[in-house]
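Notebook, p. 212. Picked up where the previous page left off. The plan for this session was modest: take the two constructs that came back from the sequencing core last week, fold each one, and keep the raw output in the notebook itself so nobody has to go hunting through shared drives later. Recording the first one now, exactly as returned: residue sequence, then the C-alpha cell string.
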Amino acid sequence: MKEFKKISWLMTAGSALVICAAGCGSSDSGSAGQSSPSAAPSAGAASSAPPAATFPLKEKASFEIFSAAHDTKPQRGNEPIFAEIEKRTNVQLKLTNIPSASYADKFKVTLVSGDLPDVMDSDVASAKKYGMDGAFLALDDLLKKFGPNILKAIKEEGIDTSLRAADGKIYGIPYFSMPGTTATVPQYRQDWLDEVKLKAPTNPDEFYQVLKAFKDANLGGKDTIPFAPQGYNNFPIFRAFGTDPRMYLNKEGVYQFGPALPGMKDALTFLNKLYNEKLIDPEFAIISKQQWEAKVSKGNVGAIFFNPGRTDFFTDVLKKENAKAKMVGGGALKDKNGKGELLPDFSLKGVMAISSKSKNAELIVKYYDFLYSPVGKLLTQYGIEGQSYTMKDGKPQYTDDFKKDMVNNPTNLGIGTSKYFFTAPLPSLFKDRNEGMLVAAAVETSKPDWTKQEPQLSFTQAEQDIVSKNLQPIMDKTSEYMIKFIIGQEPLTNFDKYVGELKQRGLDDLVKTYNAAYQRALKASQ
C-alpha cells in the first residue's frame, strides 16, 4: 500500500477545514444505466470510452464514507432515497457521520493515523494538499474512463480550475449546494420603498436617493438607519465603480487587488458621502453578526446587503410588529455603462476524496457517475417518481403533498441535507424547493447579474510562502485604511500613499502569484 507524508500533515494541522452541509443537486447527461465495476481495466490502462456495464451490480458491493454530519438533520443512511439508490445500484454505503463541530479535528487525526476510509468528505484546499502528499488518489484517469457525467458537470459548472491542485491533478469528486444559498444581494424594505414612492435602485445615484428618502421620511423613527452593512466591505456599490474589496478575477480573466485600484478611490468617496449624511450605520466597522441581526430585526433599517434568504427571515421577524413589513431582493447597482455585477453562489462546497489505499476506487467513481447521470440527478434532487415528484412536459415537479412541508420532507426522504448525493444542481431545483418564498424572487431578480464563479486556487510551496507572508499584512492595512477613508479619519488625498504602503508589503508579488496559479490551473484544465 502507498505510504504518504504524515509529517507534512502534522505541520498543517492548524489549517482550517471548511466543511459544508448545504443543498443538493446535479447537472449533466448520461444514460440511466451506468457503468459497474465488473471486468473493467485498471486506472492506468488506456481506454477511449467507459466500459459497457450497467447497474445494478450482479453481486453486492459497498464502500465507506467518512463525512461531517449536518448540524441539525444528519442523514443516517436509512432514509428512503438511500434504499432506492441501493436498489438501483446494489451498492451499500457504510456511513461514518462526525458532528460538524468536531469534524476538522477528527479529519486531521484520521489523516495522521494513515488508516483511511474509502472516501473522506473534504474541503477543496485540503483535498488538493493532502492529495499531493499521497493521502488521496489522483482521479484524472479514473474520471476519463468511468466518470463522463462527472467530467461533463465539472466543465458545465466551470470548476475545473478550482479542483486542480498545484500538480495539475484532481483529488476529489465535487459536491455542491443549491444555487441561491450563498449569493450576496441588495435587499430593501419594500414597504419603505412604497412609502417614499421609489423603486429598488439600479445604480449608485439611485441608491443614494433611496437611502436619503428613507432618512428624510424617518421611516424607522428617530433611530432610522437607511443602510446597515456589517464590515467595511459589505456594500453593494464596489463593482459599479470598477473595483472590488478583495483580490478578484476581473472580466478579462486577470486577478486584481480591488482595494488598490483607482475605482476604489471613487467608491470610497461615495461611501464617505453616505457616512457623513448619516445614511449608513455608524457602527458598521465594529458590529458583530449577532448585533447586526438584532439591529435589523428592530425594524429601523431600510436596506442590507446579504444572503437572499434574509428576505424571508427578516420579513417574518418584522411582521410581528408591523404587518406591512417586507424585505425584497434587488439586482446589482449598475455602472455608467449600465452593467452590474454581483458575486455569485460559490456552489462548489467540497469534494469526496478517495483514499490512495482504497481498493474500491473504480467502484466509487462509477457510483458517483451514476448519481451525476439524468436518472441520478432526479433521484438525488427530486426523489422517487410517483412519491415525491411527477413528470410534466418533460420536467420534474414536486407533488402537492410533498410541497406541503418543504422544510422537512426533503430531509425525511433523504435529499435535504446529505452530501453523499450532492451533484451539480438542476436549474429548476432552487425555485421548486422555495416556491412561494421571498428568497426565490430575490434569486431570480439578482441572478442575471451574477459573475462567473471564481476558482479556488492551488499554490505551489513557493507561491504559498508569498501568500502566507504578504496577504495578511496587506489585508490588515487595507481594513485600517478603508474604514478610515469611509468615516473621514483619513483624507482621500492620501489614497496613493495607502496604495504605496500596500506595495511595500508585497502587493505586486501577491498579485503576480495569484495570476501565476490561475494560469497554471487553466493550462492543466485544457
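Okay, moving on. Second construct, recorded in the same format:
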Amino acid sequence: MLIFIICITLLVLAYKFYSPFVERQAGIDKNVKTPQARFADGVDYVEVHPVKAFLIQFLNIAGVGPIFGPILGAIYGPIALVWIVLGNILGGAVHDYFSGVLSIKEDGKSLPEIAGRYFNVYAKGVMLIFTAMLLFFVGVVFIMSPAGLLSNLDYFKGTILANNTFWVLVILAYYFLATMLPIDKIITKLYPIFGLLMIVMTVSIGVALLISAPQLPEVGDIFAYFDHSHYNNDLLEPNPDGLPVWPLLFVTITCGAISGFHSTQAPIIARCLTNEKYVRPVYYGAMMCEGIVACVWALAGIAAFPGGYMELKSILDLGGPGMVVNQVATTYLGVAGGIMAIIAVAIFPITSGDTAFRSLRLTIIDAFNIPQNVRNRLLVAVPILVIAYFMTKIDFTLIWRYFAFSNMLLSTSVLWLATKYLFDRGAFHWIVSLPAIGGTSVTVSYIMTAGIGLGLPQPLSQPVGIAVGAISLIALILAHQKRKPVKSEAETES
C-alpha cells in the first residue's frame, strides 16, 4: 500500500512544486491575446471555460490508454508504478505542457506547422507523416475496440446489435459529426461529464483496492520482476527470462507515463483557451491526473486478484485488458462497477477516437492552408473516415503495433521540438532535452529489435540504445556550450 501512496503523492507534489518551475521557462504571457480571441470562427476557435477545458483535455488524452496499458504492464510488478511516476513527472507532463505552450503561441497550429517554424520544411514533412499516421491509427483502433466489445455483450446476442459491422458504422457516423461540427456542439457539452465520470471511477476503484485488494505490493517488491520472486516461471513463457523491461515496459505503458498522441490533441484546446496562464493547469494538470489513473489500474493488475500475477495473465489471455477491467470493477464495486466497466471500455475509447479524427482534419487543413468552410471540412473528413472503415478489416494487432511505434516516436520528436524552443529562448532546456535523449534511446532500442523494425537479436537492444543516448547527450552538451545567451535570468522568469 505504501508504494502506491508514495506514487500518488509524488505526482501531486510535482504539480505543486515542479510545474511552476517548468512554467517559468516557457515564457508565458498572461496579457497577450490568445488564438481564441484573435481567430474566433465559431468552429474550432471557440471560448471554453478553463475547468471545461481541463476535463476535455483529460478525456481526450485518457480514453482507455491509462487503463489498458498499465494493466498489461502490471505483469512486470511494482516496477510498473515506478515507471509511470518517473515517466510522468520527468517526461509526460512536461511533454504535454510544452505541446500546449507551442500550440497556443503559434496561433493554435498543429505540430507539423510548428516543426516547420522551428526547424525547416523537411522537419515539417516528417512530422506531418508521423502525426497523421498516429492520429489515423488511434482513430481506427478506437473504432475496432469499442465495436468489438459492444457486439459481444450478452444483452445483444441474437440481434443486429451483435453485428460488429453495425457498431463500426454507428461509431463512424458519430465520428463524422464530432469531426465536422463546431467544438461547442458536442465536445464541450458531453466530454466534461465523461471526464468527471472517469475521475469518479478512478477514485472509487482506488479506494476499494486499498481497502480490500489481497495482493497489495510493498516497497520491497519494487524490483521483484528482476529476481523472479513475484511469480513462477510459467508466467514468463515463452521467454524463461521474462520480457525485457528495456524497452518493452516503456512501450507497453505510454498513456500515464508519456504518449505522443497527447501532443496531437494540444491544438484542439489551445484554440479555446482565453489566457496563456491556463496552459499549466489544463495540460500539465490533465497529464498528472492521467498518471494517477494509470497508477490505479496498474495497482489493480498487481493487487486485485487472489491468484496474483498468474490469475492476471490467465484473464488477459482469455479476454484481454477489457476483461480485467470488467472483473475488477464488478468484484470491487458491484453492479455500479459493471456499468462503469462498460462505459470505460466502450465510451472512453470513442471519446479519444473522435478527437483523433478531428485533430487529423485540423492537421491536414493547417498543412495545406485549406480555408475553413463546410465544403472543405467535408472534403477532408469524408475520405479519412471511408479509408478508416476499410482499415477496420485489417488485423487489430498489426495496427496496434504500428500505433505503439508511432506513438513513441512522436513523443520523442515533440520533446526535441520543445528543446529547440527553449534553446532559442536561452531558457533551461534540460527539463525537456534530457527526457528527449531518454526517449531517443528507447525508440532506437525498440526499432532495432521489433518485428516492425529491423528485427535484430534482443541482446543488441540495450547497448545500442544506450550508445545512441550517450552520443545525443554529448552532442547536446557541445551545442549548449556554444549557445549564445539570449535572455537574462530575470527575463526568463518573468
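Notes on construct two before I forget. The chain is about 75% helix and 0% strand.
Flagging for discussion at group meeting.
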